[in-house]
Design brief:
There is one protein chain. This protein is α/β, with parallel strands linked by helices. It folds into three domains: 172 residues, 3-Layer(aba) Sandwich (Rossmann fold); 152 residues, TPP-binding domain (Rossmann fold, 3-Layer(aba) Sandwich), CATH 3.40.50.1220; 184 residues, Rossmann fold (3-Layer(aba) Sandwich), CATH 3.40.50.970. Helices cover 39% and strands 15% of the residues. It is built from 23 helices and 20 strands. The strands form four sheets. Strands 3-2-4-5-7-6 form a six-stranded parallel β-sheet, sandwiched between helices. A six-stranded parallel β-sheet has the order 11-10-9-12-13-14, sandwiched between helices. Strand 19, helix 22 and strand 20 form a beta-alpha-beta unit. The longest helix has 16 residues.
């Protein structure tokens, strides 16, 4: 095995050690996927991966969904994983195929989403020689290692089971992320005895008891605590809500943490509502979040703010420098905090007070027209348990704070990567994982055209995503910035097709809506049709009605009145 990070997987034996199976490396890779409960692989085969796809064809428990572009394969795996919490698996050819998929892997890294890529390499005899073999990359291993959590290249077929096991362990352990297993062209077809492997189970751990005690003391003494959550708190939702009720603290999220506490709960706050409370906050408890709101988006950190940071990644404590760092699994750490606070005096309900803050934010958001009205129309038709996939667009940005979300993993995001065109193919992966659910993708015209060919994939595999294309004839967000800074746009004007006719040419349902009321009706028609649907909505670009005043708000800091005895 040639690798920069070799699998740390000990080999074990079958009950009948004399009969380990003899398989090709491709067969062994698929067996490893099956053993880990994989039911879907998104992929495009090529000459270097024929044996892998033939082995997938013979595996009845795994559906192969073929895309039209490698980037879509990675994005679909992202959507599958982010909406389920299980690893999303995809396969692409080496070299340019891997590079085409790299944006999706980078997004998996950014959003802490577990994905596994099974790819190939040029024949081992030619690796590192620069001969110009088909799909050769000077150093694929080093390249993919730069944007993944873990990667390996297997040159011995007998080591495939261990490599696959380690890939899944790495993708799901600690802070989740993308992993890559590359099996060269010639190795895939070679046979070997394949003894099974066993990984030491990853045991979640809590935080240091002394640190928990210090954190609990700070929280117990807080006048106006705030809880901020990210994707790392999704599996701790019950504990987070219990802690919020104990502290009578609003729970604020930007993207990945949406729905951990439902937006219709008195303590469930959008980022816009959270900012209304920010200046009065004296203790911040952050759980599984990079705290982008604090260090980047919200100005004027309250003087004397005490921060408690819960994260499974110790590096985050070094980056954020909290007052108290609690390193461990968020669910366990939150339970530790609850136990440490059980004897604290019960706080009176602040639901009414906090409801007033939320209502003020809602009134301000309602003035963001037509974005808020269109999102309200979508939310009215989208079932409570439906899935919403944002996109790098004005409507996508507005959804961060203007769309109510009720459950974790139901607001799908590209996180800080902000990569245009991710939304539609990612939504297909969400739909593949939740065939009977309603999945809505919102996008701009520019972003939609990045992956429009995947309408063919949607129709072929019955992935009934409802895609709402807000058409302003431009890369609108960029153009708005250019006009604001320079007085004009440059390279941002777009001449678009007739999206309705184009959708119909693929065999999808094409609809048009020009008002929020028409969008509400079109959404209802699309839900009833149970077909891939494209709804086009004209959305003239407005510099006056921008969501950015909520995402990057101006200073609202104020001096608090001194407490009186």
């Amino acid at each position: 095995m040639s690798t920069t990070s070799a699998p740390s997987v000990p080999a074990s034996t079958y009950a009948d050690a004399a009969q380990p199976p003899v398989l090709t490396a491709g067969q062994a890779a698929v067996a490893g996927l099956r053993e880990r409960g994989v039911d879907t692989v998104f992929g495009i085969p090529g000459v270097q991966t024929y044996e892998l796809f033939e082995s997938l064809r013979r595996e009845p428990g795994i559906e192969v969904i073929g895309a039209r572009h490698e980037q879509a394969c990675a994005y679909m795996a992202l959507g599958y994983a982010q909406s389920t919490g299980r690893p999303g698996v995809f396969s692409v050819v080496p070299g340019p195929g891997v590079l085409n998929a790299s944006a999706g892997m980078l997004t998996s890294l950014a959003t802490s989403t577990p994905t596994v890529c099974v790819t190939s390499e040029i024949p081992t005899d030619y690796m590192g020689r620069g001969m110009g073999h088909l799909h050769e990359m000077p150093d694929q291993q080093a390249t993919v290692s730069s944007f993944t959590k873990w990667a390996t290249t297997v040159t011995d077929p007998a080591e495939v089971p261990g490599a696959v096991a380690e890939a899944f362990a790495q993708a799901t352990g600690g802070r989740p992320g993308p992993s890559v297993v590359a099996i060269p062209w010639d190795v895939l077809t070679r046979k070997a005895s394949m003894p099974p492997v066993e990984l030491e189970p990853t045991r979640a751990h809590g935080a240091d008891d002394d640190a928990v005690a210090r954190a609990a003391q700070a929280l117990a003494g807080a006048r106006n605590p705030m809880i901020m959550v990210g994707s790392g708190a999704r599996h701790a939702r019950e504990g987070v809500l219990a802690l919020a009720e104990t502290l009578q603290a609003p729970v604020v999220s930007l993207r990945g943490g949406r729905g951990i506490v439902p937006d219709d709960h008195p303590l469930g706050f959008s980022s816009a509502a959270g900012f209304e409370r920010w200046a009065d906050t004296d203790v911040l408890l952050a759980v599984g979040t990079r705290q982008e709101l604090v260090w980047f988006r919200w100005p004027d950190t309250p003087e004397g703010l005490v921060t408690v940071n819960v994260d499974i990644d110790p590096a985050q404590q070094e980056r954020l420098e909290p007052t108290v760092g609690l390193t461990g699994d968020s669910r366990l750490v939150v339970d530790q905090l609850l136990a440490a606070l059980q004897d604290a005096p019960q706080r009176p309900s602040r639901h009414e007070e906090l409801a007033g803050i939320k209502e003020k934010a809602r009134r301000e958001i309602a003035e963001l027209k037509p974005h808020a009205d269109y999102l309200a129309a979508i939310r009215e038709v989208l079932p409570r348990d439906g899935y919403f996939v944002e996109e790098v667009s004005q409507i996508g940005f507005a959804s961060y704070f203007a769309l109510d979300v009720y459950d974790p993993r139901h607001f799908i995001t590209c996180g800080y990567q902000g990569n245009l065109g991710y939304g539609f193919p990612t939504a297909l992966g969400v739909q593949a994982a939740h065939r009977d659910s309603v999945v809505v993708s919102v996008t701009g015209d520019g972003g939609f055209m990045y992956g429009v060919q995947e309408l063919a994939t949607a129709v072929q595999y019955g992935l009934n995503v409802i895609t709402v294309v807000f058409d302003n004839g431009a890369f609108g967000n960029v153009q708005a910035d250019q006009v604001r800074i320079y007085g004009h746009g440059s390279g941002t004007e777009l001449r678009n097709p007739d999206f309705v006719a184009m959708a119909e040419s693929f065999g999808a349902l094409g609809l048009r809506a020009t008002t929020p009321e028409e969008l509400r009706s079109a959404m209802a028609e699309a839900v009833a049709a149970k077909r891939p649907t494209v709804i086009t909505v004209p959305m003239p670009l407005s510099l006056e009605q921008s969501p950015w005043c909520f995402i990057m708000p101006a200073s609202r800091a104020r001096t608090a009145e001194p407490e009186r005895d």
